[in-house]
Amino acid sequence: MTSEYDAGVLLVDKPAGKTSFDMVRAVRRVFGIKKVGHAGTLDPFATGLLVICIGRPATRLIEGFMGGEKEYLATMRLGQVSTTLDPEGEVSYGDSPAGIDETEVESALTGFRGEILQTPPQYSALKHKGKPLYHYARKGITIEKEPRKITIHQLDWLDRRISITDEKPSIDLLVRCSKGTYIRSLAADIGATLGCGAYLTSLRRTKSGFFSVEHSVSGTDFYDDNKADLIRNNILAVGDVQKLLQSSKGMDSIPCSS
C-alpha cells in the first residue's frame, strides 16, 4: 500500500527494448502499489522521457499531462521503408537517396512545419471498434483513419550537410510537436516527399510539456534493488505538479532531488 510520501510523479528515462508498461510494472514492484499509470506511450525501440504517475492523486493528473507539447530527437533512414514505419517492421529498399541535396531536404522539411494533416499509422494503439489498429494490421486488415490536424512547432535538421550519400543515408532531426503526432508517420511522409522513401530508425523523447528527460531517473535503475532509495527520492509531489499545471511556468520550476 502506497504512503503519502510515495504518491506523486516520477520522470523515467525509458531504455530501448522495454515497453512503457514494462516500466509501469517495475514502478509497481518498487513501490508495492497497483495504481500506477503513464502519460504517453513510447514504443519499445524508443528511449527517453516517460512520465509515470504513482497513486490515485497522481493518476488523476494524467489527462492534464497528455496535452502538452512533446520534443524528440529522431533519426530517419532514407532510401528504405518499413511496414511499421520503424525498425520493428519488415524493411525493404526504396530508391537511392544519393544526390539529394541540402536544399531539397530543407524544402521537404519546410512543408511539414506548422499545422498539417497527418494520417495515423496502421501499426498504432489508436482504437477502432474498441481494438487498437495494430490488432487489425497484424491480421492484414487495413483500417483507414481520417487525417488529423497536428502542429509541428519545430523541425530542425541537426546533422545538416551538402548532400545525402549511400554511405550516409540517415538524417537526424529535432522535432517539437503537438499532442497526437506520430514521428514514424512524419519520417515516412518526409521520405515520400523526397521521392526515396524513409523510415524511423531511432527515437528519443526529451521533453513532454514542462517535464524534461534531464530530470529523470534511468529506467535501468528499476532492476537494481540498491537503487530503490534513489528512485523514491526523485518523486515529484502531487501538490507541486498541480501548481505547475495551473501556472504552466515550465520545466525550470520542477523540483528535482539529487
In short:
The chain is an alpha+beta fold and 258 residues long.
Alpha-carbon Rg, integer: 19 Å
Provide the residue-averaged pLDDT: 89
Strand content: 25-35%
Query: Can you identify the CATH class of the largest domain?
Result: Alpha Beta
In terms of structural class, how would the helical and strand content be classed? Answer: alpha+beta
Terminal-residue CA separation: 25 Å
CATH homologous superfamily title of the largest domain: Pseudouridine synthase
Helix proportion of residues, in percent?
A: 10-25%
The succession of helices and strands, N to C, reads: EHEEHHEEEHEEEHEEHEEEHH
Number of distinct helices: 8
Shape: globular
Q: Residue ranges: pLDDT <50 for 5 or more in a row?
A: 1-5, 249-258
| Largest sheet properties | 10 strands, mixed
Secondary-structure arrangement, i.e. CATH architecture of the largest domain: 2-Layer Sandwich
Number of domains: 2
Record field, number of beta strands: 14
CATH names the topology of the largest domain as: Pseudouridine synthase
Describe the structure.
With 258 residues, the protein is α+β, with helices and mostly antiparallel strands. It has 2 domains: 8-67 and 210-253, Alpha-Beta Plaits, CATH 3.30.70; 70-207, Pseudouridine synthase, CATH 3.30.2350. 24% of the residues lie in helices and 29% in strands. It is built from 8 helices and 14 strands. The strands form 3 sheets. Strands 1, 2, 3, 4, 7, 10, 11, 12, 13 and 14 form a 10-stranded mixed sheet that branches. A two-stranded antiparallel ribbon has the order 5-6. A hairpin with a 2-residue loop joins strand 12 and strand 13 (211-212). The longest helix is centred in the N-terminal third of the chain and has 12 residues, at 20-31. The model is unreliable at 1-5 and 249-258 (pLDDT under 50).
